[in-house]
Every structure is written in structure tokens, then in C-alpha cells.
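Suppose you are handed a protein chain with no further information: no name, no annotation, nothing but its sequence. What can you learn? This example shows the usual starting point.
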Amino acid sequence: SGVRLVVDVREFMSNLPAVLHGSGLEMHPCTLEVGDYVLSPEIVVERKSVSDLFSSFASGRLYNQAEAMTKHYKTAVLLVEFEAEKSFSLQSEQDLGDDIAFNNIISKLALLFLHFPRLRIVWSRSLHDTAAIFRSLKSNQEEPQVQAAMEVGAPIDGRDAAADDACTNQAAVELLRRLPGVTEKNFRAVLTRCDTLADLAAMTPAQLQELLGDARQG
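A reasonable first move is to predict its three-dimensional structure. Written in C-alpha cells, the prediction is:
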């Protein structure tokens, strides 16, 4: 299995990168616009401590992060990391209710995953558990490329990425990503080359081969 991780530089304020390095994983620090850890060209992880999770819900930041991850990666993971010496739970059993309540963390999580069904959640008991989880997720995956990870969600040719996204037909992009031969590795090249799905359909087999490459490699 691979050992390379692309890591947002802000994560080095925590102890996790040191634990990951100690477990044999190779750190490549850079500034990431999307996610905290890129495990492969298809897998991104946003890591939250329990306190981070609560504050991210309160600020609304988590919704923006989930939207960006599910938009740009095939597998978007929200990893919630507990402290080893503390209870492995978000709230006490008596605080759990039968109905959705907007001030309840479990309700907020349920609504988040209803809104972003492609988002996956992983629970970690400790830093060392997170290292083991990352190794498991990376199994049989290609290694991430630092430059490619840095470019995800970044401004394009001086334009604001969010403004550029607003001009994109997201329904068409989702359809494109489901077409045979289109992968997480080549769909951005298709977006750059083709203004519409009709442009893609009009291509000759030779042009498609040049644009998409060998689908068996993607």
C-alpha cells in the first residue's frame, strides 16, 4: 500500500502529522484549499476534533467544507477524532432525543449527511487510530500528487474559484462524472476542453482517446 500523504500545513499545529510520520507514512506539506489530508487522487479527509466539530457547525464552515470535498473528490471523508482519555461519545445518552433538534449535535450530523449523501464519516478513538485508518483507506489506492492536490479548489487564472464554480452547470458536471471512461483523474481536462456535453458527444473516438486516455488506467 502507498505511504504518501499530502497534508495541509495548518495540520502541523497538531500532533497528528508526527504520529503519522512515526507510523511510516510520508508527509508532503502544502496549502490545501480543499480538505486537510489528501490520501489518493480520489480520497480527501477533513479532520475534526470533537470541539472543532461543534464550532464548525456553529460557524457554518463545515457545510462549505463538505460541499467542496464532495464536489472535487470521489470519496470525501469527515474524520471525527476523539481524545484517547475521554469518552468515545459526542453527548450523553440522556441528551439523545427522538426528534430532530437544530441545537443537537446528532441532529446536525444527520442533516449534514442528508444534504451531502456522498460524504462519509469515520470515527477515530485516538491519533494512533487515525494513522491506522489512513493506512486502511489508502490500501489499493494510487499515491496523491502534491501539485494536483494544491490546485483543487484554487483560483484559476486569477479568478475567484467560488465565482468560477457559480458559472458551472453542476448538474452537467455530475452527469459527466458518471459517464464511462470519465474518472476523477481526467474529468477536469474534459471541463477545460469541452464547453458542453454536446461538445464531448461530437468528438471522434481518436479525440476521446487523446482526451480521456486509457480508461483502464483511470
